[in-house]
Design goal:
The chain is globular and about 45 Å long. Strands 1-2-3-4-5-7-6 form a 7-stranded mixed beta sheet, with helices on both faces. It has 7 helices and 7 strands; from the N terminus they run βαααβββαβαββαα. Helix 6 (about 155-160) packs across helix 7 (about 165-175). It has one domain (about 5-175): Gcn5-related N-acetyltransferase (GNAT) (Aminopeptidase), CATH 3.40.630. It starts with a strand and ends in an 11-residue tail after the last helix. It has about 180 residues and is an alpha+beta fold. About 35% of the residues lie in helices and about 30% in strands.
């Protein structure tokens, strides 16, 4: 049985091992000290959660920021599973934990996935995420990040019950931002 709990500093080494041995880590965290500093920040802020197996071992983690996307929506920042535990559904369980935690208060969630990580992108798509934007060079020149979004299933059901052409239909298919009038 897998349990997911808030990370403590005691989990830092296991989280670092999962991150450094991932595609994400191999591209963005080539300096071990940067990975340690980044993970320490997330753990200290209480934004990292770890997957613990039956033997009590930390086998992966997820870091999400409650209002990290557009200062309004949850953002899945980093997810990594130790190499020996990949393909066992742990990443999926971590994502389900993230969604169950944040969909109680939010209508949608966001993440970015890099072009060098097509397996992760396929997982997100299988779980209902869809691409809503492309950001070339967001974190590193030559790497394109795909902005992905998932609607809260209960919000999506309410939108789906509206007839086409309603505000709900627009919200599901487009991003739009209201720009306030500037009064001189």
């Amino acid at each position: 049985m897998m349990t997911i709990t808030q990370a403590q500093m005691a989990h830092l080494e296991d989280c670092k091992a999962a991150l450094l041995d991932s595609k994400l880590g191999q591209v963005y965290f080539t300096v071990e000290q940067n990975a340690v500093a980044t993970l320490t920040e997330g753990i200290t802020k209480g934004e990292v959660f770890v997957a613990i197996d039956e033997a009590g071992a930390c086998v992966g983690f997820i870091w999400f920021i409650e209002d990290g996307a557009f200062h309004s929506f949850p953002y899945l920042h980093i997810i990594a599973v130790k190499a020996a535990y990949r393909g066992m559904g742990i990443g999926k369980k971590l994502i389900q934990f993230f969604e169950e935690t944040v969909f109680t208060d939010h209508s949608k969630v966001f993440l970015v996935v890099a072009d060098f990580n097509p397996e992760a992108r396929r997982l997100y798509e299988r779980l209902g995420y869809r691409q809503v934007g492309v950001i070339p060079g967001l974190y590193r020149e030559g790497v394109t990040e795909y902005l992905m979004m998932k609607m809260n299933p209960s919000t999506k059901a309410a939108i789906d019950s509206n007839p086409p052409g309603t505000l709900g239909d627009i919200l599901e298919t487009e991003f739009f931002f209201a720009i306030p009038d500037i009064v001189a």
